């Protein structure tokens, strides 16, 4: 039983919450600067804007203003940026957006702020504060074309931009349809409830769309002045048929003013005019007229005689009493100061009657930046970053803090500055769609992957991609960027070869710190390898041939002398005692040896397979002569080794230094481009 009661209680709670939300479909109400959500006395649910990362909060206190949403505000720096609120909407649906501003001297400067408000790329209004204790309000009616809208504050000329509340109200059906809505917004200039019994406006819940119908009893400068004598307020408790679109709420139509003297006249300033506008009056016969009584009248506008011709008979036009009739002009040119009059016709027994009036100015939409879609895709990749949350159009009415745009009516992005913004992943390919781009600064991030093809960006002059983790080769398409003057890609992980077209004096090019990136073409390196190898091989070959010829020549002379020296059966080798370490072996005739040794007169020693004799040459050089004592194979081989031994160090050194020369040539030819690359890129 207790479980059932608990479930019943929870079900009722959910139904109540659903009912509370259901009474405000499509409503968004931001309490700017507020710290908590709440429901006001009208039943409207207010949400804190504490998710906004920009601006500062201020508390204010204004006499006679007790509504919670007007005790705080959010203000922003007076700089060259814009600060935006982004709201979700349903595409192809009409909305009213309303922003209010209560200064309250929040900055203690007593300098009344003046700044701009915009909807997306379209300038909406200039907010001019003239009283610290008066709420300024601005409303716009629009057909949503995207899933979000942005309301932005910018361009402060005095004081700081600020906002108290921001409200979004969704319309149903064809209300406020115009044939111009694809190209124009409707900026609300006047919405008046005539015959009101107090100064309180009519709004939600009496108006299901929470439009604010201002009372004609409010007294303010240039607002419904020059009232004609004999103007009288009338009202009824009878229900009014206001049709399914609920153009004006019933409560508004239950009051009116009547010109008992035959005339109704007013003068008021129209915010945003002169210009073309949408102007409608709302009429319902709420007085009980006798059978012989009639009410006919005409609208009279100065200098517009053609508009004064049609006559209005409310009861006839509305097909009965207590029914709405709404004559108006979907497109009319109006001045800033509007004076209008309703005068009864000559056959009318009653004076004119007026229940309500709306006047809206057509505000031409600006299409915004041509690169909007491409830059939106880039922002989406980094939606959690602060720089990606600025909102609004990238260029209009002022550009984002990290972009620069040209001055075309529909501008293009010409510069992107995202240095040191913690960018990760590949360089967004949508950057290659920014056809007007002149400067790209993405240095100091953690970007990876290859450099994309910027071929289509014919105006690109500056590219800064240094200090990232980019890999792959430098695209050869960079050579085709004829406007390119500055290319910085140092300290990445690029590899391959540098396109030769980038190595020209007109380009400020830095590519150091990419240790696998080499200057010059691969073909040149192959030629260097071939030349180095060939030169080394030729030198080695020449050295080998020369050595062989030298040895062969020595042997030949030895055998010739051996045959001449028939008195000695074996070879004879003569060496200098003084220069044994520096001279090579030489061949002498037998007669020269006999003269030097005086026919082998003085024996000075003996060794393996031979006896050593002292001798002295004609030039005074002392020598030692070894004579082979037998003609065995072993003795002959050992003796020959002693003769050839002085050539071995020479050949070893020759081959050693030839090998070193061969490898040096190879190294220089293969590595010189790399060495030159490192030096030239510092």
UniProtKB/TrEMBL annotation:
GO cellular component terms, alphabetically, are:
membrane
Where is the signal peptide, in residue numbers?
1-22
- Chief site of localization: membrane
Enumerate the UniProt keywords alphabetically: ATP-binding, Glycoprotein, Leucine-rich repeat, Membrane, Nucleotide-binding, Repeat, Signal, Transmembrane, Transmembrane helix
Its subcellular locations are: Membrane
TM ranges are 527-551, 643-665
Offer an example of a GO molecular function term for this protein.
ATP binding
Residues holding ATP: 626
Q: How does it sit in the membrane?
A: Single-pass membrane protein
Q: What InterPro entries does the annotation carry?
A: Kinase-like_dom_sf, Leu-rich_rpt, LRR_dom_sf, Malectin-like_Carb-bd_dom, Protein_kinase_ATP_BS
Coiled coil regions in record: none
Recorded protein name is Malectin-like domain-containing protein
Q: Which organism is it from?
A: Vitis rotundifolia (Muscadine grape)
């Amino acid at each position: 039983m207790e479980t059932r009661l608990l479930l019943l209680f929870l079900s009722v709670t959910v139904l109540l919450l659903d009912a509370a939300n259901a009474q405000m479909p499509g409503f968004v109400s931001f309490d700017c600067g507020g710290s908590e959500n709440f429901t006001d006395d009208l039943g409207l649910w207010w949400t804190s804007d504490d998710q906004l990362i920009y601006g500062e909060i201020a508390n204010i206190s204004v006499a006679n203003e007790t509504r919670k949403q007007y005790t705080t505000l959010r203000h922003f720096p007076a700089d060259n940026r814009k600060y935006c609120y982004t709201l979700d909407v349903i595409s192809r649906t009409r909305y009213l957006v309303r922003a209010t501003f209560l200064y309250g001297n929040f900055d203690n400067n007593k300098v009344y702020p003046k700044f701009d408000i915009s909807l997306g790329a379209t300038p909406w209004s200039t907010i001019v504060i003239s009283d610290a204790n008066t709420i300024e309000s601005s409303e716009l009616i629009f057909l949503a074309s995207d899933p979000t809208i942005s309301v932005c504050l910018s361009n402060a000329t005095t004081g700081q931009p600020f906002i108290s509340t921001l409200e979004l109200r969704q319309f149903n059906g064809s209300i406020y349809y115009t044939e111009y809505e694809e190209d124009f917004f409707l900026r609300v200039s006047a919405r008046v409830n005539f015959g009101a019994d107090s100064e309180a406006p009519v709004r939600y819940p009496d108006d299901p769309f929470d439009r604010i119908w201002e009372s004609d009893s409010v007294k303010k400068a240039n607002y419904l002045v020059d009232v004609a004598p004999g103007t009288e307020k009338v009202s009824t408790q009878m229900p009014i048929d206001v049709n399914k679109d609920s153009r004006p709420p019933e409560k508004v139509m239950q009051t009116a003013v009547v010109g008992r003297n035959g005339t109704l006249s007013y003068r008021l300033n129209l915010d945003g005019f002169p210009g073309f506008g949408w102007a409608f009056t709302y009429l319902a016969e709420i007085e009980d007229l006798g059978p012989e009584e009639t009410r006919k009248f005409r609208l009279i506008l100065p200098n517009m005689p053609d508009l004064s011709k049609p006559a209005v008979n409310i009861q006839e036009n509305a097909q009965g009493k207590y029914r709405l009739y709404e004559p108006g002009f979907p497109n009319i040119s109006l001045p800033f100061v509007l004076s209008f009059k309703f005068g009864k016709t000559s056959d009318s027994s009653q004076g004119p009657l007026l229940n309500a009036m709306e006047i809206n100015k057509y505000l031409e939409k600006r299409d915004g930046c041509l690169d909007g879609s491409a830059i939106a895709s880039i922002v989406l990749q980094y939606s959690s970053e602060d720089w990606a949350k600025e909102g609004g159009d990238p260029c209009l009415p002022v550009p984002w803090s990290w972009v620069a745009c040209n001055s075309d009516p529909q501008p293009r992005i010409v510069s992107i500055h995202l240095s040191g913004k913690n960018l990760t992943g590949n360089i967004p390919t949508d950057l290659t769609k920014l056809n007007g781009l002149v400067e790209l600064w993405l240095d100091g991030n953690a970007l990876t992957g290859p450099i994309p093809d910027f071929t289509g960006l014919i105006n690109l002059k500056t590219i800064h991609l240094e200090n990232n983790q980019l890999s792959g080769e430098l695209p050869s398409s960079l050579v085709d960027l004829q406007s390119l003057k500055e290319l910085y890609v140092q300290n990445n992980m690029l590899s391959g070869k540098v396109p030769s077209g980038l190595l020209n004096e007109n380009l400020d090019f830095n590519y150091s710190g990419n240790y696998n990136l080499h200057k010059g073409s691969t073909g040149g390196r192959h030629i260097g390898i071939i030349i180095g190898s060939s030169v080394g091989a030729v030198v080695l070959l020449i050295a080998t041939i020369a050595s062989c010829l030298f040895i062969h020549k020595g042997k030949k002379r030895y055998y010739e002398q051996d045959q001449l020296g028939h008195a000695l059966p074996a070879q004879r080798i003569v060496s200098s005692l003084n220069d044994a370490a520096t001279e090579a072996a030489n061949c002498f005739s037998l007669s020269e040896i006999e003269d030097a040794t005086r026919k082998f007169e003085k024996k000075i020693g003996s060794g393996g397979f031979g006896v050593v004799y002292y001798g002295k040459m004609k030039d005074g050089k002392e020598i030692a002569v070894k004579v082979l004592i037998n003609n065995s194979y072993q003795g002959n081989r050992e003796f020959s080794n002693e003769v050839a031994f002085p050539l071995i160090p020479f050949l070893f050194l020759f081959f050693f230094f030839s090998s070193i020369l061969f490898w040096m040539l190879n190294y220089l030819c293969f590595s010189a481009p790399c060495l030159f690359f490192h030096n030239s890129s510092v």
